[in-house]
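Sample 3 of the quickstart, ligand S-adenosylmethionine:
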Amino acid sequence: MTSLVRFPRIVAGALRYSQAMSENAFWVEWHRQYDDPESPRSRRLAAVQQQLRDAIDHAPKGRIRLISMCAGQGRDVIGVLADHPRSGEVDALLVELNPELVADAQSLADAANLSNVKIVTGDAALTNSYAEAVPAEIIMVCGVFGRPSDEDIKQIITELPHLGTQGAVAIWTKEGVGMVDRRPLVRSFFTEVGFEEITYYTEEGTTFGVGSNRWNGAPLPFRPDRQMFTFRDVGAEARG
Ligand SMILES: C[S@@+](CC[C@H](N)C(=O)[O-])C[C@H]1O[C@@H](n2cnc3c(N)ncnc32)[C@H](O)[C@@H]1O
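Result:
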């Protein structure tokens, strides 16, 4: 009898495990496009890195705290810090759920001798994941807006001033794929929340948008225990 009662729970547990495994495999595969320097993903990476270089160049004197949500292999941050003249002033925290990608990011950081880049396996949706590293001068939100609902995207953007300093720069990406191109919506969310748009960049023949927005408003307090988003299963639209 006991085993019959436990059976559905065992099946549900196995199903969850297999979903997590296929989700992990999906994101590992997603990163393979970076191996081709001409791919749209690599073009997007170059745009993100340019905006990050600009943000570091213009950051106030002194330590620069950087947090990265859903950091993947961390190529954007690590690629820039590898040769930026202010690299030694940056304390970076990269949060990524997939242990395989965390290991890749750690290898890249080690190869670049970046001891001030901390990479953690954790849930980027939870504000608590950033508690030790806020308020941040730079917040990377790249490849995050592909899966959450519009409400969640607005919620993430609303939370950013609570994770950043006055003057914090958020660097984000959004793919213009699916029935409706939601890049304009994301830009309008930033404006509605009170961010100034510094740069918005896209490229002929690609679907990506890369933006940088500054928070000029009053500093807002960190809010622990908040969940900002969930990643929905949106199939082919899941491009980040
Ligand atoms: C579209 S990729 C973006 C990776 C990287 N930011 C980039 O732009 O190259 C999305 C990443 O989010 C990760 N992810 C999904 N849900 C997450 C969560 N709740 N917390 C942390 N990472 C998550 C995935 O494993 C994947 O590496």
